[in-house]
Amino acid sequence: MSKEKQQVSRRQFLNYSLMGVGGFMAAGLLVSPIRMAIDPVLKKSDSGDYANVGLSVDDITTEPQRVDWTIEQVDGWYESEPSKTAWVYKDDDGEIVALSPICTHLGCVVSWEGSEQYPEQFYCPCHDGRYEKDGTNIPGTPPLAPLAVYEQKVENGILFLGNAIDRKGA
Ligand code: FES
């Protein structure tokens, strides 16, 4: 009788042990997918935010200058810090203009006065695309739409840029 009782006790002990280890392993397996599903939703996203591009408004002239900065980007589980670029200047009314450097033809990078042949224009070296200073595409060159314009705001005299907004083609 006491031997049988002892065997049951061992069996119970084994069952509890296996259940405990199994439960621990199952919890470990479940935590990761649950965290993967919830964490990106709860995390603060930088998308749509304005970034301090480190440029004082006082330093912006009528000559387009290249400004580079990085943003924190979370894409699912992939976190990165892609770099961004804008061409920034003040127009004749003193308004700040921030243009995307991405050519609207096939996505190469344009430069202000990138060709000596075309002064006072943005130039794309890939297929000789050209844009006016305000980003308008020049008819007869490959791009069919103007350069995108960054959303912008000024805080404490510092320029902040947001998303680049596409413009309709001429
Ligand atoms: S990519 Fe700029 S002209 Fe083609």
Automatic annotation (TrEMBL):
Cellular component terms (Gene Ontology): membrane
InterPro entries registered for this protein in UniProt: Rieske_2Fe-2S, Rieske_2Fe-2S_sf, Rieske_Fe-S_prot, Rieske_Fe-S_prot_C, TAT_signal
UniProt cross-references to Pfam families, sorted A to Z: Rieske
Cofactor(s) listed in the protein's UniProt record: [2Fe-2S] cluster
Signal peptide: none
Metal-binding found in the keyword field: yes
Record GO terms (molecular function): 2 iron, 2 sulfur cluster binding; metal ion binding; monooxygenase activity; oxidoreductase activity, acting on paired donors, with incorporation or reduction of molecular oxygen
Protein family (similarity comment): Belongs to the Rieske iron-sulfur protein family.
Subunit structure: The main subunits of the menaquinol:cytochrome c complex are a Rieske-type iron-sulfur protein (QcrA), a cytochrome b (QcrB) and a cytochrome c (QcrC).
Record function comment: Component of the menaquinol:cytochrome c reductase complex. The Rieske protein is a high potential 2Fe-2S protein.
Protein name, as recorded: Menaquinol:cytochrome c reductase iron-sulfur subunit
